[in-house]
Automatic annotation (TrEMBL):
It comes from the Eukaryota. It holds the Pfam family FAD_binding_3. This is Salicylate hydroxylase. SUPFAM superfamilies: FAD-linked reductases, C-terminal domain, FAD/NAD(P)-binding domain. Residues 1-24 form the signal peptide. Belongs to the paxM FAD-dependent monooxygenase family. Transmembrane segments: none annotated. One of its GO terms (molecular function) is FAD binding.
Length: 427
């Protein structure tokens, strides 16, 4: 950027996930002073597979050097093979029709996170580790956080503190409890070395190409992706689970429990699960939260971003992308409003994002039910029905351009008290 439209603006950001890092990078690119508070004591290589659609891929590509760093570590296949639970081939979904929409990035969350983190630091984002925010405050002229008893103020706070957000309680004035979604996911990221030893699974360790295969059965789906020249493999197994809600990215999973959810399935799926080292297996409970009535604090100087505002089911394949779109949109709004009109920017951010996010969130339920509630006799007759819907309104979308396009009319409708949702224009 040639100009520095946000210079003089001090933005405090909570949480160095993809929402917080994107907001930090985008505010910093526009010249704001940014302090990012992260409760973890160091940046660790956490998680497993994460997906960024072409709508967020274009955000990475605007950051110098990031696409080049992501390419070698990400998954590159031109399609997804669907098979039935008994290994009958159903259909191959090819992504070529989406090429014009831009580039997707799917890979290890920790590795991608490291690249984005390093980019943030390289452009001058100050990241404070071991900095758990314990309180938030706002006045008519500033907003801030309390960290280890110290009060730190800025023009606004963007709170991207994840699914267990405490900022959410401040904004809402009550604690929003999660509900069980009735499903859970066993997840693993592993080396392909153990797979090479079994003829049933050795084909997955193909150094010449990345593979993406999904096996679908009644109320269960199992997806495998290989990457990094056939050396790494990630799989997810989504199944019914009525257990009580405890969200965690690190709850241990057990091979025998995972096997029970695919009884009667093809031996290939059993062999992949049995080859998985148990210390590489996570049991992740999926929770629902009803859409929040607002993401903005009473004086409109604190805004929720990312999962803090809107946790996603993984079957939307959009949680991380939408958290990045939040960060970009908030930064554009702050740029256009300027230091003297920060509350206007924060309200416009919410209005621009709210309907789009909730429409995308719904696709997590519809995609899941399409696979899980399918009648498999019908699926075999009409395999097209299992293809993932790939909607251009989600994926062929430039959130930065959209924010620039609709900001003025959004502010006008806010001032008029109108409730016309601006993001509908793009749906
Ligand atoms: C450890 C971890 C592993 C994950 N692994 C995967 C994965 O494998 N695949 C996948 O699809 N998604 C994964 N996710 C979730 C995914 O990153 C998010 O759903 C999505 O990217 C939206 O990100 P976010 O920035 O809103 O939230 P998150 O990524 O959850 O980031 C929130 C951040 O806020 C920090 N934080 C929380 N409270 C405070 C506080 N009070 N003060 C300061 N900092 C605070 C957290 O430490 C965290 O770094 C993982 C998240 C985490 C935290």
């Amino acid at each position: 950027m040639d100009s520095q439209p946000c210079s003089g603006l001090k933005v405090l950001i909570v949480g160095a996930g993809f929402a917080g890092l994107t907001a930090a990078i985008e505010c910093r690119r526009r010249g704001a002073d940014v302090i990012l508070f992260e409760s973890a004591k160091d940046r660790r290589q956490l998680g497993d597979i994460i997906s960024f659609g072409s709508n967020s891929g274009r955000i990475f590509r605007r950051w110098p050097g990031v696409e080049e760093a992501l390419d070698p570590i990400c998954h590159h296949s031109d399609g997804l093979d669907f098979r039935a639970f008994d290994d009958d081939f159903l259909i191959r979904q090819i992504w070529d029709s989406e090429e014009a929409w831009g580039k997707r990035f799917n890979g290890h969350r920790g590795e991608i996170h490291g690249i984005v983190w390093n980019h943030a630091v390289s452009i001058g984002v100050e990241i404070r580790l071991s900095s758990k925010v314990s309180e938030y405050f706002e006045t008519d002229t500033e907003a801030g956080v309390v960290v280890h008893g110290e009060k730190i103020s800025g023009d606004c706070v963007l709170a991207g503190d994840g699914v267990r957000s405490t900022a959410r309680t401040i904004v809402l004035g009550f604690e929003d409890k999660p509900k069980s979604s009735g499903y859970a996911v066993y997840r693993s990221w592993m080396s392909t070395e153990p797979l090479k030893k079994d003829p049933l699974t050795a084909w997955l360790a193909d150094p010449s190409k990345d593979l993406h295969v999904g096996w679908l059965g009644p109320d269960v789906h199992f997806l495998v992706a290989t990457l990094q020249n056939g050396t790494a493999c990630s799989w997810v197994l989504t199944h019914k689970d009525e257990a009580d809600v405890e969200e965690s990215w690190s709850a241990p999973g057990y091979v025998e429990d995972a096997i029970k959810t695919v009884e009667g399935w093809t031996p290939i799926v059993h062999a992949i699960i049995r080859a998985t080292p148990e210390d590489r297996l996570v049991d992740w409970k999926l929770v629902f939260r009803d859409p929040l009535p607002t993401w903005v604090s009473p004086k409109a100087r604190i805004a929720l971003i990312g999962d803090a505002a809107h946790p996603f089911l993984p079957t939307s394949i959009q949680g991380a992308s939408q958290s990045m779109e939040d960060g970009v949109t908030a930064a554009v709004c702050l740029e256009l409003a300027g230091k003297s009109k920060v509350p206007e920017a924060i309200r416009a951010y919410e209005k621009i994002r709210y309907e789009r996010v909730h429409a995308v969130q719904q696709t997590g339920v519809t995609n899941r039910d399409n696979w899980h509630k399918a009648d498999f006799d019908q699926v075999k007759k009409n395999p097209e029905s299992v293809k993932l819907p790939r909607q251009p309104w989600i994926l062929n979308f430039d959130c930065q351009q959209h924010a620039y396009d609709v900001y003025a009319e959004t502010v006008k409708s806010l001032q008029a008290g109108s409730d016309v949702p601006q993001s509908r224009a793009a749906l």
